[in-house]
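pipeline: protein-struct stage 2 | run 1193 | Alpha/Beta hydrolase protein
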Amino acid sequence: ALSQHRSLILVDYVGVGLSTEGPAAGVATTVRQSAADVLSFLDLIGEREIDVLGFSLGGMVAQLVALNADPARLRVRKLILAGTTPSMGEGVLRSKNADVFDVAGAKDVGIETFKTLFFPPSREGLAATEQWWARIHERSEVTSGEKPATWLSQGYADGAQGLKAQSQQLAAWMTVEGTMGEEGSFDRLSGLDIPVLVVNGNKLPNAQLIIYANSSHGGIFQYVSDFAQHVVSFLSF
C-alpha cells in the first residue's frame, strides 16, 4: 500500500528476521547497536535524507536512528512510530499482557502466535489476524519469481541467537540503567523537533496521535489501508 506512493527501503537487522547469519561480532544486543547498524547501512548506500517508519522494537530503533544520526551525514525528515514505546522513564509502564512474553520467543511461529502478539481477543481481532496471515503469505515463488527466505530463528535454526539478542534489547530498553545517554530516548524525545506521527504515546512535542478502534499491538496491520493513507498524508505535507 505504501509502495504505490513512496520509494521504500526495507531493512532486516544483522542476523535477524530474513537476513543471513550475522558477523562474528554477533547480533546487536542493544537498541543503540541496531540503530548504529541501520545508520551505517544508510551511509553505505548513500542516503542523505530519509523518512523513518518503525513498528514495535523497530520503533525503538527508529527513535535512536533519528536521535543519534549525525546531521552532517543524514537528515531524518519525518518519523513514524507505531506500536512502540520510549525507553523507560517516569510514566512509562510495562505491558500487563504476560501472555505476550510467553509466546514472543516461540520456536515456531504460527497464526495462534500472531493472535496473541498483535490482535485483541475479539471478533474484530480474529478477523484481522486471518486477513494479515493470508496477506503475508501472498508472496511465494509463483507470485514473486523467487523462493521466500526462511525466518532466521524459525525452529531456532540459528540457535535462537537473533531472538535472544532482541530479548536483551527489549530488557535493557525497559530499564533506566540500560538506556542512559545515547542508549535511550526518554530524556531526549522532547528535543526531537521534527514532525512525528505516533500511533500511540504522548511525549513528543510535534506529534500527531492516531488511535485505531478495537485493535491491539498490530493495529497498523488490522487497519492497513487506513494506516497507509495516514502515512502518505503525513509525509506529503
